[in-house]
Design brief:
The complex is a heterodimer of chains A (303) and B (339).
Chain A (H helix, E strand, L loop, with lengths): L1 E4 L8 H14 L4 E4 L8 H4 L3 H10 L3 E5 L7 H11 L5 E4 L2 H7 L4 E3 L8 H9 L2 E5 L6 H13 L3 E14 L4 H5 L18 E4 L5 E6 L2 E9 L4 H7 L3 E4 L6 H12 L5 H11 L5 E2 L1 H4 L15
Parallel strand pairs in A: 1-2, 1-11, 2-3, 3-4, 4-5, 5-6, 6-7, 7-11, 10-12
Antiparallel strand pairs in A: 7-10, 8-9, 9-10
Helix pairs in contact in A: 1-3, 4-5, 6-7, 7-9, 10-11
Chain B lengths: L11 E5 L3 H9 L4 E4 L17 H13 L3 E6 L8 H14 L3 E4 L2 H10 L5 E3 L8 H11 L3 E3 L6 H10 L3 E9 L10 H6 L3 H4 L8 E5 L5 E5 L2 E6 L14 E4 L2 E6 L6 E3 L4 H6 L4 E4 L6 H19 L6 H5 L7 E2 L1 H4 L5
Parallel strand pairs in B: 1-2, 1-14, 2-3, 3-4, 4-5, 5-6, 6-7, 7-14, 13-15
Antiparallel strand pairs in B: 7-13, 8-9, 9-10, 11-12
Helix pairs in contact in B: 1-2, 1-10, 2-3
The chains are: A alpha/beta (303), B alpha/beta (339).
Chain lengths: 303, 339
């Protein structure tokens, strides 16, 4: 099973982003890195100038680079950004909106987690249209993911599952970051830059629940599927996706690589993750087909 | 099914039918078209006590057709891998009952219906989240979709622009619950309850709802034990829908409606503009609503559309009165500032 680094969901400043990917290129044991703005088309101009150098750096570090497209496509600039990306011939693309599928046609592409590839019929359709790889939606339970993975592999399609990072729970046309600051999307002043790991939303009795990232809503806790890796691999899941969070992602990737390489067991891997992600709670409920926020330990005991 | 047949002229009223009784009420109140679902996960209003058995669907289609109304069957959730049979069965039940079109979102489901029954008419559900001409054309090109239900996130000028670039009819929501998240892309309910909107057709399920009163008289509305909102003593406690809840953020410790206030969509005032923009059909949300609600709302919109069609101004007061005393919104339709 190959480790991948999914697209960065947050609006990190350009210098931090440059340093982040330089370190990923040199040190992170991941085979594939997804780049590109997936959440908000307004952010793209801030990091597009760095993209060629970032790609070059990652490729020099031996990584395969895939360019991911926007999840929401509505405005002219979003349509143009998607069409421009889908015209790319020199890199693989990951499509996150049906507009991208129309633009891309039958040329090879990957299916992103926002495209709702929930079942074998949809995956077979997509494969027939040129899809070479599919990232399953985060909420698909493990037993369904196994059925989907077996079907995809029979078609020669790669299968990816998110195994680390906040769960992407919803997108909207409205920017909730701007709303939280009494603004709207057109005059947001990029306030989302202040929250490199998302803006916390707590229940009115003080329980951390969700994170706001521009138009996206994410989970408070990080998804962590260390214990599920053997099952996923046995079912034919070929790639395990780590989503970038504001923690030491090189260290996170090393934990997963060590575990996959048999150099540390699940208990140790989870202890190491807890140390790297201090103050963060972990969830795996979606995988077990229960409320996503829950964390189910082996032997079926709920925490 | 007569796929080639045209639906009624612009201004078609598409009305909710959560039960056979509501379907009859909607038809009698002037619905051109009603939409409904079967009693399982194949539709996005899979609520206890709602929806149709195959026999009820058959009888209801006969009732509607006898009165010149059409019936749409929502098969608009996403089958999880390994469970396609239930969705295929739903489509077969719809064909046998003689429904006039299927409302679909999943590409696998759309392809199955298009290949199995090439004359079947397909409408693209709002759950497919097709909000650009390219996305809509994708479904028209590959699955023969004849109508798209647009997400509630576009302004009227944007709808007008889309209309010029797509080969199918447009249906928009005009009244009812105002969903804030992109439909078909929201897993909030599943995160808290273990039941998925996309896969199970469930949103903030009633079985997980509790109202808890504190000693000081304040009331908390909860979903699976998580506080979604809090109300002062004597204040009416609303239903705990996650995207209409109040939360605290670091700089908003007092709590605020982080996504949207609990408002209803009412585009009554915008009907003439929507028709002029090329919107073919108006959808009224509310399969979970009572017969009297359906009768009142459908009747008011029927009168308004008929006035516009005959070249008169609609009685807007009639439509505005439907949400009087409640918070209402025109959502994204009126201004980009909604975003």
């Amino acid at each position: 099973m190959e480790l991948t680094l999914g697209p960065l969901a947050y609006h990190w400043p350009a210098d931090i982003r440059r340093d982040f990917y330089a370190r990923i290129a040199d040190e992170a044991p991941v085979g594939t890195v997804y780049l590109g703005e997936v959440i908000c088309s307004k952010r793209a101009p801030f990091h597009e100038p760095d993209l060629p150098a970032t790609i070059e750096r990652l490729e020099r570090g031996g990584k395969r680079v895939v360019l991911s497209s926007l999840a929401e496509v509505m405005l002219k600039r979003e349509r143009e950004a998607t069409a421009g990306l889908m015209a790319a011939e020199d890199h693989e693309v990951e499509v996150n909106n049906a507009a991208g599928l129309m633009d891309r046609g039958r040329r090879p592409h990957r299916i992103g987690p926002f495209l709702n590839a929930y079942n074998e019929a949809t995956i077979a359709w997509m494969a027939g249209q040129g899809a070479t790889h599919v990232c399953l939606p985060a909420e698909l339970p493990g037993h369904s993911a196994a059925v989907a993975a077996r079907a995809a592999r029979a078609l020669g399609v790669g299968v990816e599952v998110q195994v680390f990072g906040r769960a992407p729970l919803a997108v909207s046309a409205r920017c909730y970051h701007a709303r939280a600051h009494g603004r709207h999307k057109d005059n947001c002043q990029f306030v989302c830059e202040d929250d490199p790991d998302g803006m916390p939303l707590l229940t009115l009795d003080g329980k951390p629940l969700l994170r706001v990232n521009g138009i996206q809503t994410q989970s408070e806790s990080y998804v962590e599927l260390v214990e599920a890796l053997p099952e996923l691999a046995a079912a034919g899941v070929s790639h395990a996706r780590l989503l970038p969070q504001a923690v030491d992602m090189v260290a996170v990737a090393r934990v997963f690589a060590d575990h996959l390489g048999g150099m540390c067991d699940a208990t140790e891997a989870r202890a190491r993750l807890a140390g790297i992600c201090a103050g963060v709670s972990f969830s795996n409920g979606f995988f077990h087909g229960v409320a996503g926020y829950r964390h189910i330990a082996r032997l079926g005991t709920a925490h | 099914m007569t796929g080639a047949e045209d639906f009624s002229a612009a201004g078609e009223l598409v009305c909710p039918a959560g039960t056979p009784a509501a379907l009859r009420t909607a038809v009698e109140a002037g619905a051109d078209t009603v939409y409904c679902g079967l009693r399982n996960a194949t539709n996005a209003r899979n609520f206890p006590g709602l929806n149709f058995t195959p026999e009820e669907l058959q009888a209801s289609v006969a009732f509607a057709h006898a009165r010149g109304a059409k019936v749409l069957l929502a098969v608009n959730t996403y089958p999880p891998a390994g469970q396609l049979a239930l969705w295929h069965e739903a489509a077969a039940i719809g064909m046998r009952a003689g429904v006039d079109a299927f409302i679909v979102a999943d590409m696998g489901v759309a392809r199955h219906i298009a290949e199995t029954w090439p004359r079947a008419r397909l409408h693209l559900s709002v759950q497919a989240a097709a909000s650009s001409p390219e996305a809509i054309r994708y479904y028209c090109t590959h699955f023969g979709v004849r109508r798209v239900v647009l997400p509630r996130i576009l302004t009227i000028p944007e709808i007008r622009a889309i209309r010029r670039e797509i080969p199918c009819e447009i249906e928009t929501f005009v009244f009812g619950n105002h969903g804030l998240m992109v439909e078909g892309r929201c897993s909030l309910t599943n995160w808290l309850t273990g039941q998925s909107t996309n896969l199970d057709g469930v949103c903030s399920p009633a079985a997980e709802v509790t109202f808890e009163r504190a000693d000081d008289g304040t009331m908390r509305s909860c979903l699976s034990g998580f506080t979604i909102d809090r109300f002062a003593a004597g204040e009416t406690a609303g239903y705990p829908t996650i995207c209409k809840g109040r939360y605290a953020a670091p700089h908003r410790p007092e709590g605020y409606y982080a996504f949207e206030e609990p408002v209803s969509l009412n585009l009554g005032r915008l009907l003439p503009e929507l028709m002029a923009a090329g919107v073919h059909a108006f959808k009224i949300e509310g399969r979970q609503r009572s017969k009297s609600y359906v009768r009142q709302v459908v009747g008011a919109f029927r009168r308004a559309v008929d006035s516009i069609r005959s070249g008169h101004d609609p009685d807007l007061a009639d439509l505005v009165a439907l949400t009087e005393g409640q918070k209402e919104t025109q959502g994204a339709f009126q201004t980009k500032k909604w975003r």
